[in-house]
Amino acid sequence: MKIDRLLAITIYLLNHKRTSAGDLANRFEVSTRTIMRDIDSLCLAGIPVISTFGVDGGYEIMKTFQMEKQVAGEIDYSFILAALKGLSTAYPDRELENTIEKLQSLGENSTQSIVIDLGVANEHKGINSLLSMLSHAIKIEHIVEFTYTNTDNITKSAVVEPVSIIYKWYHWYLLAYQPSHETYCLYKLIRMEHLTIHDQENTMLHIPKDAMHIWESRNETRTMTTIKLRCSSSIRSRCLEYLNGTIIEEYSDGDFLYEIMVPENEQFWFGTVLSFGDKVKIIEPPEIIERVVATCSEVINQYKNIE
């Protein structure tokens, strides 16, 4: 319906600032001519949409404009509730529980068709204490200090300004600003020890969205590698589930050639491949084959003298 699209365009412009007619057309799956008519309708309705011409031109809503009426419906609340309940399975927090209670009271009769369970993120109980302390530090905008052990097993003290807590790659991370290097870094919580909150406030205001963008554009150092494996038909479902790759060839005996692109030094995929035993064989690249052979030899040596 047009009225729904007009509301959606208004919300989109409020959240994304200046946007071209082409981008809006792609977003809402209509023609640019339709978008232009919709913008005219918004202007007639009193929404202060500004048109800017040129290479960086587009539509935007005046910064002084605010929407005061309720724009979320029952379906919107069900999605928000599902997301918050999923978060609560990973991050126990009293304020979060209170928020869920409020939203549930707004839609008691709604049917929740989506359930998100992030309980795996809550399996290490020691993480909860770190999450609570870091959340508090972020809220009061105070510097924190902790000892940190990196992937090279080097332990150092870190004094940083916490920005936000992130759950990605199956782990909790702290996104923080490191004043000594004037850059943003990600710290895995499981590698933190001796966390303390300083009395000193942060030296500057940090916007989580902007900080994450800076980290992603400047500090993503993981080297990706493409691996081809010949897999037995007996582990087909497990390959698809755990390795998230593509079957590029199938053989008459049921075996298949599987291709994955993974972070070179990441442990999850490597451990998964080893767990498949003789049901999988790495075809390429040679350096990964050598790594598997070396690891297996080290394991065998551990048990040579056992009678």
Automatic annotation (TrEMBL):
WYL domain span: 130-197
Top-level lineage group: Bacteria
InterPro entries with a match to the protein in the record: CBASS_pafABC_assoc_protein, HTH_11, PafC-like, WCX_dom, WH-like_DNA-bd_sf, WH_DNA-bd_sf, WYL_dom
SUPFAM superfamilies found in the cross-reference section: Winged helix' DNA-binding domain
Domain spans labelled Helix-turn-helix type: 5-59
Domain WCX per the UniProt entry, residue ranges: 226-297
PANTHER family in UniProt: PROTEIN PAFC, PTHR34580
Protein name: Helix-turn-helix type 11 domain protein
Source organism of the structure: Lachnoclostridium phytofermentans (strain ATCC 700394 / DSM 18823 / ISDg)
